[in-house]
Design brief:
The chain is mainly α and 320 residues long. The chain folds into two domains: 18-61, no CATH class; 93-316, MetI-like fold (Orthogonal Bundle). Helix content is 68%, strand content 0%. It has helices at residues 18-31, 34-61, 79-85, 92-124, 131-139, 146-156, 163-170, 185-211, 215-223, 228-239, 241-256, 260-266, 277-287, 291-316. α8 (185-211) packs antiparallel against α12 (260-266), α9 packs antiparallel against α10 and α13 packs antiparallel against α14 (291-316). The radius of gyration is 29 Å and the shape is globular. Mean pLDDT is 88; it is low at 1-11 and 18-28.
Length: 320
C-alpha cells in the first residue's frame, strides 16, 4: 500500500507530521525540567549564603573555645555542650534560668496571641461601619520596630515617672506599681506590651483564613439548627486548621526568641528573672567573648524549638 503524499503544496501551510510532533514534544521535555531550578536558583543562593553557611559555621564555632579577639581558638569538642548540662559548670545555672524565663514568657504569651486575635478577627470579619478603619488601627502597632516599642513602653511603664502610674494615681488607684522592677509585674508588662504590639499580625492572618471559608457551610449549619458555638466548632475551627497551625508555630517561635522587649523595658530585672535565652546568649558571646559557648546554647535552644514544633505539627495534623 502506498503511503499518502503529505508534502505541502507550494505556497500552502506546512503539514505537521507525526515526526515533527514528536520532535517538538521532545524539545519541550528537554527544556522544561530546567525552568523551575532557574527560578529557584536566586533563593537557593541566598539561603545557602545567609542561612545554611552561617548555621554550619556556627556549629563549627560551638566545638571551639572561640574568643574572636584572640588569634588562638582551640578545639574543645563537645565540652561547650557538656557544660550546659553539668551542674558544676559556670554557665549551667544562668543558662537554664534564662531558658526558664523564655518558657514563662512563651507559656504566658502564646495562648493570648492565639485566642485574642482569633476573636478580634471574627469581629472584624463582620460587616459594620468603620470596619476598615478598625482593621488598620489594630494592625498599626505591628509596623513599628522593637526599638520604638521598647523605648516607648520603658518610659510609659516607669515606676516613678511613667504615665501608667500617674494615670492610676489620678483616678484614685494605687500608683506605685513596679511594672518593670518586680515580679509578677515585669512579666505582665512584657506580655501585655507584646500582645498589644503583635496582635494585629495574627488577626490579619486569621481574617484571611476566615474569608476563605465558604459561606455555604455556615448557611448549611444554620439550616441544620446549629447555633453560634456549633458553627464555630464545626465550621470555623476545621476551616482554619492550616491557619491555626501557622499562627501557633509562628507565635511559639517568635515568643521563644523574645529579646528586644526584655532588653529595653525590664533590662532583665528584677535580678535576671526576665533575662531570656536570647539575651543570655548575646551577653555570653558579645560581652563575655565566649562565642563557642554561646553557639552551643543557640543550638540547644534550636533543638528544643524543633521538638516543640514537631509536637505542634503532630497535634494539628489532619485526622479522618
Amino acid at each position: 500500500m502506498v503511503a499518502p503524499d503529505v508534502r505541502a503544496a507550494e505556497g500552502s501551510a506546512p503539514v505537521v507530521t507525526p515526526a515533527r510532533v514528536a520532535t517538538r514534544g521532545t524539545r519541550v521535555r528537554m527544556t522544561r525540567p530546567a525552568t523551575p531550578y532557574l527560578f529557584l536558583a536566586p533563593y537557593v543562593l541566598l539561603f545557602g549564603v545567609f542561612v545554611l553557611a552561617p548555621a554550619v559555621y556556627g556549629l563549627w564555632i560551638s566545638l571551639h573555645d572561640w574568643d574572636y579577639l584572640l588569634p588562638g581558638k582551640p578545639f574543645v569538642g563537645l565540652d561547650n555542650y557538656r557544660a550546659l548540662i553539668d551542674r558544676g559548670s559556670a554557665v549551667f545555672g544562668d543558662f537554664w534560668q534564662s531558658m526558664r524565663a523564655t518558657g514563662v514568657f512563651t507559656v504566658a504569651s502564646v495562648p493570648l496571641l492565639v485566642l485574642v486575635p482569633l476573636g478580634l478577627a471574627m469581629v472584624l470579619n463582620r460587616s459594620f461601619k468603620g470596619r476598615t478603619f478598625f482593621r488598620a488601627v489594630y494592625f498599626a502597632p505591628y509596623v513599628l520596630g522593637v526599638a520604638v516599642i521598647g523605648v516607648l513602653w520603658r518610659f510609659v511603664l516607669d515606676p516613678n515617672l511613667g504615665a501608667v502610674n500617674a494615670l492610676l494615681s489620678a483616678v484614685g488607684l494605687p500608683g506605685a506599681t513596679p511594672w518593670t522592677t518586680a515580679l509578677p509585674w515585669a512579666w505582665i508588662s512584657l506580655v501585655g506590651v507584646t500582645v498589644w504590639w503583635t496582635i494585629g499580625f495574627n488577626a490579619v492572618i486569621y481574617l484571611a483564613g476566615l474569608q476563605d471559608i465558604p459561606r455555604e457551610l455556615y448557611e448549611a449549619a444554620r439550616i441544620d439548627g446549629a447555633g453560634r458555638w456549633a458553627e464555630f466548632r464545626a465550621v470555623t475551627v476545621p476551616g482554619l486548621r492550616p491557619v491555626l497551625l501557622f499562627v501557633v508555630i509562628n507565635t511559639i517561635l517568635s515568643s521563644s526568641n523574645m529579646f528586644g522587649q526584655a532588653l529595653l523595658i525590664t533590662q532583665g530585672a528584677p535580678g535576671n528573672e526576665t533575662r531570656t535565652a536570647i539575651m543570655y546568649i548575646g551577653q555570653t558571646g558579645l560581652r563575655d567573648y565566649n562565642m563557642g559557648s554561646a553557639a552551643a546554647m543557640s543550638y540547644l535552644l534550636t533543638l528544643a524549638l524543633l521538638l516543640v514544633s514537631m509536637l505542634t505539627f503532630r497535634l494539628f495534623r489532619d485526622r479522618d
